[in-house]
Amino acid sequence: MNSQVIFSSISVNLNSIPILNGTNFKEWKENILITLGCMDLDLALRVEQHASLTDGSTQDEKKYYEKWDRSNRSSLMIIKCGILESFRGAVSDEVTNAKDFLSEIGMLLKDFTSKTYSGKGNIREYIMEMSYNVSRLKTLKIEISEDVLVHIVLNSLPIAFDPFKVRYNCQKEKWSLNELISYCVQEEERMKQNKTESAHLASTSKDKSKKRKRTPIKNEAAKDPVQKKHKEGETTCFFCKKSRHMKKDCTKYHA
């Protein structure tokens, strides 16, 4: 196979790897493993490094060691090639093993990108924790730009923040991390205030409903001041309904 065909094959394989942007780690890792496997470069990811060669090492051991070393170096280069520029940086001198590098970046990014804000607690502290995780990634010399961090934080907010995220996406200006914290705190306070007011209105409406149900219906007869209970033993005319005389003595009856 000539060098042109080999280069073309490598190019096709590398183009199948999506760029790691901080939110697609699972997809990115799967494509990295598939690509390295198809290129027969995944030995360093499947098998632990053997002991260093010695003067007594056999030819087979030397060939295997060289194959593993090539796999390890190639894997590191391809992994780095598939990282967004804002993440990109020289591989840490302390991490020269491709498998270890993939494991460490996976652990940090998975924890970083899978975090979501529950809506309970303090959003300022939540964002500061996300910022701290970014500083942890710097141990691998992987830089995450502030724009990417803002994007990841916004994506991690719950549905209640959707209108807030829409407003951000509709504007041209980008927020700094401090601006994001300030606006998120204001938005959370606004939502808490609205929730308190809604709960108060619901409670007030419920109380009024209970009072209406408990109010007794008054006797219509009791509302008429003319109708009074007659005193016991008092004579009443059955014709004019007035007291202190009888029907036979009623002037209106005899009129």
What is the molecular shape? rod-shaped
Regions with little confidence, pLDDT below 50 for 5+ residues: 225-229
- Overall pLDDT level: 78
Structural class: mainly alpha
Number of helices: 11
DSSP, total strands: 0
Secondary-structure element order, N to C = HHHHHHHHHHH
The share of residues in helices is: 55-70%
**Major sheet summary line:** none
Distance between the termini: 139 Å
Region (Disordered): 194-232
GO molecular function: nucleic acid binding; zinc ion binding
Domain CCHC-type: 236-252
Protein name: CCHC-type domain-containing protein
Structure characterization notes:
There is one protein chain. With 255 residues, the protein is mainly α. The protein has 2 domains: 1-51 and 61-114, no CATH class; 115-202. The chain has 11 helices and no strands. The chain has helices spanning 3-15, 25-38, 43-46, 59-81, 98-113, 123-137, 146-155, 162-170, 177-214, 220-223, 251-254. Helix 4 runs parallel beside helix 5 (98-113) and helix 5 (98-113) runs antiparallel to helix 6. The chain is rod-shaped. The termini are far apart.
